[in-house]
């Protein structure tokens, strides 16, 4: 426990479902921060959200918000295509940023952000891969780091959603869902992903017409591990995220979620979470608190722009692997010293 | 989400292990509050804790702290015998209080607090029965309230600690440990406890000389339920709190704590928490946040002085049941309208 | 593996549900035995069962069956009140017997059998406490015998049935159901039960009028252990038998029955067995095979007449404890040398 | 229950570890059969085994044993290369056979057996894929057959051994271990396997020099399912066989093996079986009993020569996939009417 500086004033860019939830989180759950600005191209929505928060100003222009004296840090929760501009503006003001995933929509734009931050000369951005803040993933990571089970050889992942939103495409299973496993793989194993293969069974009758759901995605890594991901976004029965690391001398599995066990009507068992909010609420809270705490200490921690870029590159390989039905190698630029 | 009033200034009375942890919690985890005063009869310790917090004053006299302009609420974490005086002083200043358990050391003093708050005419005290804020207990409570399993008939509880602190007595298993199950029984079932029986097996070799550990404690309730508690404070292997409600049409069990499952060295399974901090950290966080939120809304929620008094009365019956080896009935005064 | 003598000819006395199932078991599942005689006061039923088995004769008189040259051993599955006569006849022919529980309906008659076998000078009877042959109970017993968890201090038991048969009384919960836990307690712990207390919550709405169901039964043992049994014979949702031994340095639990885990419709979990046949089929098979094997080796193993008598004595104490609402001590005769 | 014919006389061919265990099984566990002949090229070993069984003759020549009057059925437990000759001899005597896996060492020889049985005009052979007789696999099969979870889309398998025997090669992981998952896949899903891919992470330090262990094997099926198998034969910590079927509306998992749960020394959990004998003892018992029962009824049930042939063909594709690092398609002859 060290003495703290003054309360952190945060500008939240984007007031959709995710942004509004972050406003609530910072105001009601997070220690040491408050929302001093909200930004949305929809001026009415920005005003409505700002009106609920004492001392919060509504903006339509991110640059204007970032220039305000009571804004010390920026949380980017706008749609992916708007991230690049917002990040570059933040760099101009040298403001710390928590940027929701994806960093940007593709590897080329991610690379531009990487270059811009490199020129700035110090890290400013934490990317919102919030699974790294989930208590179970953190336990798994800690266990792997002790080395007591030996080297990780395989990582089996399950990722299931009740139903996909309208308008989902087969590619979005890779770009919006499996991105989490891409980050988790890199973070848990400390490896880069070098190749992707995507296999698709006959689609489930639950899948909307034309959507290849579920998919079975396989990563190879530069540390010699094999990683598989079952992604099934229309499973109908619940939201489940499970991971099992198979190491030389043992395995470790998370995500069973067995809090309360009931016995009734001829069955034992429990309830399955129905969405990511329920499953990962604590992880979001911990992520934002960690970002606020680090920012107030003058530090940048958490997933970096390099992580955001690497995942974008794996996504592009994954989508090609899905479309062409072949194994696709991942190509990455050399890792800059800033991210070593 | 509603607009919030200014940050709550909290005086923390008592800066021992529990008090110091609450100071850390309010400063680093809790939204909307900060510690403006710490009080300890040990002036040096108070100063040391205050020095780590921006804008926090050290006191040795609780009354002086409560009179300060930047103190809006009080968290009592001093030893049990000091609670009565602190609570009465808080009533004089009409300050909201979060009082760590026990409310006071016995039923007679608890009754005096009850009377004082009743005269005040409104509730000011939330008693620190923090299990009510544990996510699993909350799920169990919600399930029971739906009525889908029918009426609860029995409640089986397990409560195990690695080792008792030096100086523990057989009575402290009832007064310091089983108090939690007394509160949980009353809260989960909505019943008052009417009789207590305590059975003791041959003590474990782990138990310090002369301590009857484990004990098997049985409650009868005015709702016709039978409740059993295994309390074993020197089990050596971990800290475990489990509860199984047996209802007419099913059962529900919490506390298995099966987050990460490993397979290694011929065994599957996981780690058992080693203390209550690990097991109930989230519950403490949630409890203090709930108290801060309610206080800022001008409300008093959570366990009441009546709950503190009722548990004190059950404790007295429990200790007699242990000492005399017989079933002892619990006697309660009539419940005042304030606590209906 | 040793060379085996000729196939054992078994007379099955009683061809009700249990007897008929044993006939099937010996013919189809058991190695080294066949049914050469069936006995029933209902001549038609005996003939019908015999007709399905090659070389099997139907009798109405147990003595006639036991005198037949092709009868080498007797399995008694007639109603409890008929056991005493059957056992005494078997003693006259010095035939080995597997006698279904209860040995006899009360302690006095059990004592007469004890005396008769003692006069015979060697054990002839194995009592049908088949839980001793259940794989999970056997594992628990083995673990306790290693001593690695230390001395057992408590044993928590759950015993639930879907529904009681027509005509059940409150006493039958003790005499027909809890008898299993009486035997299991004595066998697992190696203690005799010295006192019984029975507590009854407000009966479940599932219980037939006038039946006190569930009950909470507490044993004290001469080894200083406390044992509790939840017996709930109209729980509606399944058949469950669970036991948790709490030892000085750890606990061990059996009976969760988690073979196949499904995830569907918002729930994870599995199926609960609906009756004892499903739960204990393997135990019955193993029990009869063990009896056949021992008999062919000229030995008598398994639960003895002393075990049958001791359980009958505990039952009588239990029924008094239920009726009078008090703790009742168990009185046993001195244990004869034959059963040491 | 139907009346049974006389006891089945069985010739056991091969008296190694597996054969000797089957002799013990038939003599001590199986109802309705006895071993009347044992055959081994090692005459001493055959005599030694025969000497322990009443009425059992030792042979060195399978044909001589099969010609004996007291031999009604044959259990082939000799090494794989000897199977073809033994099976053809059994066909000459038109004897029912239980043939341990593999049916024969390769697809070409399996095809010759297929052709020979087809000429015989009726099925005589049950292949020893004993997982079909495991209680948990049987439950999973039953559940899938109800269709209540919808169509199976994926099947995730784990297959782990403590250590490989001396002399194991990378190919044997496919040919000796994954064969079980090949059969299970075909049986559970009712699909044929159409392609195999094998991925290998950097070998575990546990793996003997030059052995690629673990491997990750992927099947595609003619029913549009994707099946993955983790095979890890030097995991060091236990023997584990798990399967998870992912269907359209839910999943089902077997193999967790959670019979007894202990809490001790800071950990909860249980013991992992150390070999297949422990894990599948009941399956072997059930398999042999099912074969004896069917044979006495004059029927042939269980895995057929077609199943043995199909698995051999998948093995050949799997070994090529491993060696060449590519996806290999499986080629099967047309399925004869006898096996429809």
UniProtKB/TrEMBL annotation, chains A, B, C, D:
EC class (word): oxidoreductase
Protein origin, superkingdom: Bacteria
Catalytic activities: myo-inositol + NAD(+) = scyllo-inosose + NADH + H(+)
Keyword Phosphoprotein: no
Family matches, as Gene3D superfamilies: Dihydrodipicolinate Reductase, domain 2 (3.30.360.10), NAD(P)-binding Rossmann-like Domain (3.40.50.720)
Assigned protein family: Belongs to the Gfo/Idh/MocA family.
Protein name: Inositol 2-dehydrogenase
Gene for this chain: iolG
């Amino acid at each position: 426990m060290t003495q703290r500086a003054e309360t952190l004033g945060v500008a939240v860019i984007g007031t959709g479902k995710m942004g509004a939830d972050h406003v609530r989180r910072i105001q009601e759950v997070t220690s040491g921060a408050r929302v001093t600005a909200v930004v949305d191209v929809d001026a009415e929505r920005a005003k409505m959200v700002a009106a609920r928060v004492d001392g919060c100003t509504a903006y339509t222009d991110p640059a204007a918000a970032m220039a305000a004296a009571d804004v010390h840090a920026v949380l980017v929760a706008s749609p992916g295509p708007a991230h690049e501009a917002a990040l570059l503006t933040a760099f101009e003001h040298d403001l710390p940023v928590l940027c929701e995933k994806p960093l940007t929509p593709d590897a080329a734009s991610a690379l531009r952000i990487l270059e811009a931050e490199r020129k700035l000369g110090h890290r400013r951005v934490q990317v919102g891969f919030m699974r790294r803040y989930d208590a179970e993933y953190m336990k798994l990571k800690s266990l792997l780091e002790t080395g007591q089970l030996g080297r990780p050889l395989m990582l089996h992942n399950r990722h299931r959603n009740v139903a996909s939103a309208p308008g989902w495409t087969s590619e979005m299973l890779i770009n919006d869902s499996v991105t989490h496993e891409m980050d988790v793989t890199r973070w848990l194993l400390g490896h880069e992903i070098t190749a992707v293969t995507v296999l698709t069974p006959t689609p489930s009758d639950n899948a909307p017409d034309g959507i290849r759901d579920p998919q079975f995605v396989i990563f190879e890594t530069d540390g010699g591990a094999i990683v598989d991901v079952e992604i099934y976004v229309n499973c109908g029965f619940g939201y489940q995220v499970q991971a099992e690391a198979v190491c030389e001398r043992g395995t470790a599995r998370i995500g069973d979620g067995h809090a309360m066990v009931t016995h009734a009507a001829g069955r034992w068992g429990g309830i399955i979470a129905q969405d990511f909010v329920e499953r990962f609420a604590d992880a979001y809270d911990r992520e934002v608190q960690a970002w606020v705490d680090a920012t107030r200490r003058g530090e940048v921690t958490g997933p970096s722009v390099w992580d955001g870029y690497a995942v974008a590159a794996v996504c592009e390989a994954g989508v090609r692997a899905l479309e062409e039905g072949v194994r696709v190698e991942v190509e990455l630029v050399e890792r800059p010293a800033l991210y070593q």
